[in-house]
Predict the structure.
Amino acid sequence: MNKYLDKALEEIRLKNPNEPEFLQAVKEVYCTVEQIIDKNPQFEKLAMLERIAEPERIITFRVPWVDDNGQVVVNRGYRVQFNSVIGPYKGGLRFHPSVNQSIIKFLGFEQIFKNALTGLPIGGAKGGSDFDPKGKSDNEIMRFCQSFMTELYRHIGQDVDVPAGDIGVGAREIGYLFGQYKKIKNAYEGGVLTGKAICYGGSLARKEATGYGLIFYMREMLKAHGQTLNGKTVTISGSGNVAIYACEKAMSYGAKVVALSDSSGCIYDKNGIDLDYIKEIKEVNRGRVKDYLQKHPEAVYTERTGEDSPIWNIKTDIALPCATQNELTLNSAKKLAENGVLAVGEGANMPCTQEATDYLLEKGVLVAPAKAANAGGVATSAIEMSQNSMRFYYTFEEVEAKLDRIMTNIFNACKENADKYNCPGNYVAGANLAAFQKITDGMTAQGVV
Ligand code: NDP
Ligand code: 2IT
């Protein structure tokens, strides 16, 4: 291994001892860009690797709120402003009980490279809270969001840092956050948050963008290998925003989606998933995928018991992990490969463990890496920002066409870099190489800041 890379990784490991997800994300990127590091011996003197792995700023704060019984609850809020070389900090907010600094830092680190791949002027950030929105009333969600924004507002701005949604944060939460920001600032700064509802400055197709973008990327990747989505069997983990719209677009290309999941278990419908019903369960009732059996008793529901999701035991051509990090383990990768999987597309952030990715690539399975394949969401957020600046709207078709072009360009950049650096077909490396080159060029140009 390159000596500087080895030394930097060790230093980063020692500095961040309790952050396994963050270290996993850093290692994953750095170990695939060794050829660029070899070619740039000046990086050592510039401490390039150490600088990229150190957030420009980390903010943690108390979020006190009152539940419906009058009980005061205290959560912890985070915003990691990781890298502003390419544009204002940009990235989602995650509300989930598992949230901690390691998870927010891994997500923020990934976001730097993802945002660079979009070709749009956005830096990398992420935030969130260990707040659990499950089972909370709308009023509780509103009070929590207001308290969260009462601290966050002083750190963000449409040219500073622009948060959006992620797990547990959708249009409802963005609405409450925006309302509180506007009240505190006494100014209508539309571009301070993205993922807004259409009636007050949101972009058409932002809701669909991550899932649609994943399928556009998959379409291009399959095309490069003489394949199409038409007639393929697809399984998708999760049943949230990304999963639902990946399912919708995959179906529109003639694929048959047979399974979806949530953290409790998965449903398998050999006739193809009834997506309208899933939308009703998830988007309207905020229910569980198990509820699918009420209308489709012929479907099969499998409870999740251990670490591995049962969804990866189902035979499929294309597997799309769209739930959370490290949800697709080596065991699951072996099962998928055994069942003849052709491609895996990462809709979630870092859903495959490092061992799973290595195994899939070794077996010749096509892997669409998260930071490239799920970049459609943030890219459309940037399109939302530009519409807000222009005080103008694009039609759904206009936004979707731009998204399609962006995802096609991202795939082409992954392919060109995989070819250039002698790892044809390895789009995981291709994505990292393309993004790392851009970030290090920008950091070099802007000096030691
Ligand atoms: P949602 O909150 O809409 O949905 C999340 C889904 O994942 C739910 O089905 C949820 O199940 C499941 N899930 C969440 N955490 C876990 C867990 N620990 N174990 C098992 N299942 C889990 O979120 P999104 O669809 O927006 O996000 C999904 C993934 O996509 C995340 O990794 C996110 O970072 C990534 N992503 C999202 C983008 C966006 O624009 N929204 C953009 C790019 C990436 P349950 O209800 O049981 O918790
Ligand atoms: O992981 C991601 O890219 C997101 N959650 C979307 C971020 C955004 O700013 O739209």
